[in-house]
Amino acid sequence: MIAALRKEFLLQWRTRAQAVAIFVFGATSLLLFSFAIGPNAAALRQHAAGFLWLGLLLSSTLTLSESFHAEMENRALEGLLLLPVSPRVLYYGKALANTIQLVVLGIALVPVMVVLYDAGTTRIPTILLIIVLGSAGISAPGTLYSAMTSQARAKQTLLPLLLFPLIVPVLLASVKSTSLAILGDPMEQGRSWVALLIAFNGIYWSLCGLLFDRVVED
Amino acid sequence: MPMESLAIDASHLARRYGRRWGLVDVSFQLARGKVMMVAGRNGSGKTTLLKILSTAIRPDAGGALVGGFDVKTQREEIRQSTALLSHYSYLYESLSALENLEIVSRFIGGQPPPAVLERVGLFDRANDPVSTFSAGMRKRLSFARVLLQRPAIAFLDEPFGQLDPQGFVLVEEVVAELKRGGATVVIATHQVERLARIADVQLTLESGRVA
Question: Least C-beta-crowded within 10 Å: which of A52, A77, A187, B95?
């Protein structure tokens, strides 16, 4: 597992310029969303969480579809599968690396959200927890679907088509819980949304790990 | 031949690509420690046979035991003791030669990568990214990847492809070394004359069938 993670981090480090480009894409998305609302400070603050997660979701399709690019270039993934390594180890290594990449991106986008939408909050640990759970919820099925679509000609279109309907519960729970963390949560509703995120992650991290070898093996 | 002395026991292997059969009813046995040359024209099924035996793909019919394990149901066990030199390099372009080998080494243990790089003549380029390598150098690095695995059964698909004359000699030496070490080697090649000296057995395929 550590070997799989080290491989992923090494590959990500070598393509770090791409991570910067994806951050710029996410930040630009947040800026464009603010234009859609107009100069209404209250409305901007109210929709800040939704825009943050839409920005992160759109950026995630870029990171996820790219995560299998290096694996397919010289059929490197096939080479790894022929080693005495469980495909599950390779899946969890990649899914975890994708999660970490999305968490870093999410954390980097929070200050952009605060500046653009005046959506400051003191509940930083809660926001962090939601970003970690939301990113993991996107990464688990996202990594599996990215493997499925990596050899398709229209992979950039196919991945969001498959992924977005599946992760509606993650998006909903992440937006609601982030929004409650920013705007206040007098009824303590945030916990139930976080519980939904934990349940989704539990199901999809187990299920996708089980299905990965059926996706990548002949 | 007694089962325990067999490295490979293939029985009626067949593989289909869409509606076309790439391999039809291929059966053979190969004893441990032998070198087998698989000859045949382009599209005769050599690569398909090696991919089935190395568990890269599954047969659509028939079966085979590799090292005593079933290619359909005991793939992980087979992968413990086999290595495939494929048409594909299996290399990461953005990583260096050493980093590519270190990835394999971390998964399986095996020989230290610098020693293997030295063996294939790439020690001086160990820290250069694979994207700067010529086709022949990539082939040498793929060869190093196979050596790193210390396979009991090695499948080499066109090992001479893209190599220079020194590379040809290297392949012959390595195959001889593997054989001396007790490994079984299956080589798909067009260089029949060159390998005739080393090979113990020859299997010729024609349109997916044993000729």
Answer: A187
CATH number at residue B153: 3.40.50.300
Its pTM stands at 0.90
Least confident of A209-213, B106-110, B134-138: B106-110
Region label for B90, one of left (φ > 0), alpha (ψ between -120 and 50) or beta (otherwise): left
B131 in Cβ contact with B169 (< 8 Å): no
Which amino acid does the sequence have at B32? R
Query: Sign (positive/negative) of CA torsion B178, B183, B188, B189?
Result: positive
Examine residue B183 and state whether it is found in any structural domain, yes or no.
Answer: yes
A15 touches chain B (CB under 8 A): yes
| Beta-carbon separation of A79 and B145 below 8 A | yes
**Residue A23's closest CA among A74, A58, A51, A50?**
A58
Q: Are A137 and A68 in contact (CB under 8 A)?
A: no
Note whether B147 and B85 are within 8 A (CB).
no
pLDDT band at B59 (very low <50, low <70, confident <90, very high): very high
List of residues 6+ apart from A46 with CB closer than 8 A = A179, A183
Question: What is the length of chain B?
Answer: 211
CA atoms of A151 and A155, how far apart (whole Å): 7
Flag whether pLDDT at B109 surpasses 80.
Answer: no
Q: What is the dihedral of CA A137, A138, A140, A146, to 10 degrees?
A: 170
Over the stretch A128-155, which tens digit does the pLDDT of each residue have? 999 999 999 999 999 999 999 988 878 7
Whether B132 is covered by a domain: the verdict is: yes
Structural domains of chain B, count: 1
Range of the domain at B114: 33-56+76-206
pLDDT tens per residue, range A53-62: 999 999 999 9
Range A103-118 average pLDDT: 93
Strands B153-157 and B184-188: parallel
**Helix intervals (H) in A118-189:** 124-149, 155-166, 168-183
Contacting A residues, span 61-90, partner chain B, CB-CB under 8 Å: 70, 73-76, 78-86
Q: Which of A4, A6, A73 sits opposite B93 (nearest CB)?
A: A73
Q: Is residue B26 part of a domain?
A: no
- Identify the closest residue of chain A to B72 by CA–CA distance: A218
